[in-house]
Amino acid sequence: MEVRMKNILVARDLGKDSARVIRYALELGCKFHAQIYVLHVMPTVDASVMNMVSLAMGADKLAKFNKENEAELAAQTRKQLHELILEEAEYLEEEVAHPPKVEVHHGEPVPMILTMADSIDADLIVIGSHSKGRLEYAFLGSVAEKILRKSHRPVMIVPPNALKPTKKK
Q1: What angle do the packed helices 59-89 and 18-32 form, to 10 degrees?
Q2: Which residues contact 150 (CB under 8 A, 6 or more apart)?
């Protein structure tokens, strides 16, 4: 059996070590000449908080405010991701064959990542893991762990500090 990868999905948050997760995916993309999709999922606001704000602001004003601010935040996040991709590409020995595609969505991370993986027919999902304490992990769980359990696709989990920053020569 030969392993082939055409589409690689890298899901990232805005954590300090997640830039290296993108580099890991870019390295794989270079080796397999695969298309990289970088996904950031903006979290949803709790419904009870939204109801309280809606009562104070009014439902119409809140809806307009959300629409304007979500679009602006998504645009800023896309720009940040594009800049991050360029920075991380400097560390690669090979040129990136296909420019990475950036996706920013709003919703719950796990279902959004799995849906995106299905929509692009991802051959691999690359995701970072955080070093959480046992208590925090027990109560909050882990997006990486949930993706690993729920996905029918291969998943690569990149631990914190997996790659040391060394520029190409």
Answers
A1: 60
A2: 110, 114
pTM for the structure as a whole: 0.81
**Share of the chain residues as helix, strand and coil, in percent rounded to the nearest 5:** 50, 15, 35
Q: CA–CA separation, 126 vs 119, rounded Å?
A: 16
Show Cβ contacts of residue 149 under 8 Å, excluding neighbours closer than 6 positions: none
> Can you give the three-state secondary structure of 23-91, one letter per residue?
HHHHHHHHHHCCEEEEEEEECCCCHHHHHHHHHHHCHHHHHHHHHHHHHHHHHHHHHHHHHHHHHHHCC
* Tens of pLDDT, residues 77-95: 899 899 988 888 888 878 7
Q: What is the pLDDT of residue 139?
A: 42
pLDDT tens track for 27-59: 999 999 999 999 999 877 767 776 777 777 777
* Type of residue found at 16: K
Gap between the terminal Cα atoms of the chain: 34
Note the CATH number of domain 7-158.
3.40.50.620
